[in-house]
Amino acid sequence: MLEELAASHDIAREILDWRAMMKLKGTYVDALPQLVHQKTGRVHTTFNQAVAATGRLSSSDPNLQNIPIRTELGREIRGAFIADPGHVLISADYSQIELRVLAHMAQEQSLIDAFRRGDDIHDQTSAKVFGDNSGLSAHELRRRAKIINYALLYGKTAFTLAKDIGVTQQAAQEFIDAYFAGYPSVRRFIDETIAKARDTGVVSTLFGRRRRVPELTSRNGQIRAAAERVTVNLPIQGTAADILKRAMIDLHEVLPSIPGLRMILTVHDELVFEAPEATADEAAALVKHHMEHAVPLDVPLDVDVGVGRTWKDAKA
DNA sequence: CCTGACTCC
DNA sequence: CATGGGAGTCAGG
Questions:
Q1: Is strand C less than 7 A from the beta carbon of A206?
Q2: Considering just the CA atoms, what is the radius of gyration of chain A in Å?
Q3: Which nucleotide in the DNA or RNA is closest to residue A26, CA to C1'?
Q4: How high is the pLDDT of residue A133?
Q5: Whole-number Å distance, CA A269 to C1' B9?
Q6: A196-225: pLDDT as tens digits
Q7: Is the CB of A49 under 7 A from strand C?
Q8: Do A316 and A305 meet the contact criterion of CB atoms below 8 Å apart?
Q9: Residue segments in chain A with a per-residue pLDDT below the cut of 70
Q10: In what order do the strands lie in the sheet with A270-276?
Q11: Cβ atoms within 10 Å, residue A96
Q12: A231/C6 CA-to-C1' distance in Å
């Protein structure tokens, strides 16, 4: 509501800005320094292996998987995470891993081809959904296409899509129809995944991680619809989690080949390492290679690697 | 202990 | 009538 009011009343924006700043102060600026361990001089999180139903890890006490990055002010928090003297932090994250998993599992040829060519997938979706006669900037078209790419395969409806990208519900429905017309195998994958899970009561990742979804046969339409969204999400998010875990295992094995190289954090599609400055480039190449070759898919996996003294600098 | 609002992928 | 998935922390009540 305040977001809507902000367009016409300055006080609404002021309230939202104040809340965001208080959140940064309370959750990060005030709290994290108190959690620095006496002997190690570091903050140590707990990674929970049996919390998230998709196979992801979660992080708590403190949660180091929700350190701000979206806004410039929030991103400053990452500048406080600093490598030991003589060392650097290496941040390596999978580029669009869930869309690549989708391309592989749905066997959607136009997505597979695009990833093999190295095309920008959001631009391709923009062309399929919006055409090229909308009058909007390429940047705005790409932003909307990105929302569609990540939302539709999990069951987002025209109602919320319309709110997200600022169009009428009727227009949003036309975009959704155009998306599935352009990616017919994605439609088929969604339908077949739900049908099989309804018959068996279980849905699985590419590597066999299972989640029970008994609500698929509920007579309550809302409960059933929610279960269908969970069912479609699990193979995508869960397979991506499996891939990252395999990469972590592989990298754990080869870490000793570079003295002083340490794995220090995982954030769903990202791994953070600490390495001696002298072997930083060698370590970055090793990390990138093992992440990109953790599993064989019909599309390439692409990893972006950054090096810096702080976590903030390593992501740039 | 719960809710809403904020943070992340 | 309700309206993408997965998480954690904080303040306030």
A1: no
A2: 22
A3: C10
A4: 63
A5: 7
A6: 999 999 999 999 999 999 999 998 888 899
A7: no
A8: no
A9: 133, 316
A10: A262-266, A270-276, A87-94, A303-308
A11: 20
A12: 13
CA of A143 to C1' of C2 (A): 26
Q: Which two tokens stand for residue A174?
A: 């036309």
> Structure tokens of A79?
């500048």
Cβ of A99 < 7 Å from strand C?
Answer: no
Which of A98, A96, A125 minimizes the C-alpha distance to A110?
Answer: A125
Q: Which two structure tokens, joined as six digits, stand for A78? A: 């990452």
Q: Which nucleotides of B are covered by protein (CB under 7 A)?
A: 5-9
Nearest residue to A113 via CA among A300, A304, A315: A300
- Residue at shortest CA–C1' distance from C7: A58
pLDDT tens for A82-136 read: 999 999 999 999 999 999 999 999 999 999 999 999 998 999 999 988 887 678 8
Burial A216-239, CB ≥16 within 10 A → b, else e: beeeeeeeeeebbbbbbbbbbbbb
Q: Does residue A228 contact residue A216 with C-beta atoms inside 8 Å? A: yes
- Mean confidence (pLDDT) of chain A: 91
pLDDT score of A104? 96
Nucleotide with smallest C1' distance to residue A154 CA: C4
State the pTM of this model. 0.95
Query: A217: Cβ under 7 Å from strand C?
Result: no
- What Å value separates CA A93 and C1' C11? 33
Footprint of strand B on the protein (CB under 7 A): A 2, 16, 19-20, 23-24, 27, 65-71, 74, 267-270
Residue whose Cα is closest to the C1' of C5: A233
